[in-house]
Design goal:
Blueprint lengths: L1 E6 L7 H12 L5 E5 L5 H7 L3 E7 L8 H13 L4 E3 L2 H9 L10
Parallel strand pairs: 1-2, 1-3, 3-4
Helix pairs in contact: 3-4
């Protein structure tokens, strides 16, 4: 089973759906569970027991996210034994979990 952590706010953004679609094309019939970032806790991930974890992109700048809402994901990033892949903003989320600065680039 694969776990996609949906980092969008109120479902705005296509990243989780695009990740799911790509994974289903790579491995037809694979079981994929998508969970919102606010619902992630170490206990929940342990119960799901995914083989891999995918962090989706986000739909808003990271300063719009409450640290307490991201705490479960940050804990999973630090401690999960499964491989974790951050896609777009998901890679930024990994950087944030380790204290790196993340900001918008200028056009």
């Amino acid at each position: 089973m694969l776990l996609i952590i949906d980092n969008t706010i109120e479902g705005v953004g296509s990243s989780p759906r695009e990740i799911r679609s790509a994974l289903e094309r790579i491995e037809p019939g694979v079981r994929i569970v998508t969970e919102r970032f606010e619902n992630i806790s170490p206990e929940h991930v342990k119960t799901l027991n995914p083989s891999h974890i995918f962090l989706s992109g986000q739909s808003h700048p990271w300063d719009r996210y409450l640290r307490e809402d991201l705490a479960g994901v940050f804990h999973v990033i630090h401690h999960a034994p499964q491989p974790i892949l951050g896609v777009c903003g998901g890679q930024q989320q990994i950087a944030l979990a380790y204290g790196a600065p993340v900001d918008l680039i200028e056009r």
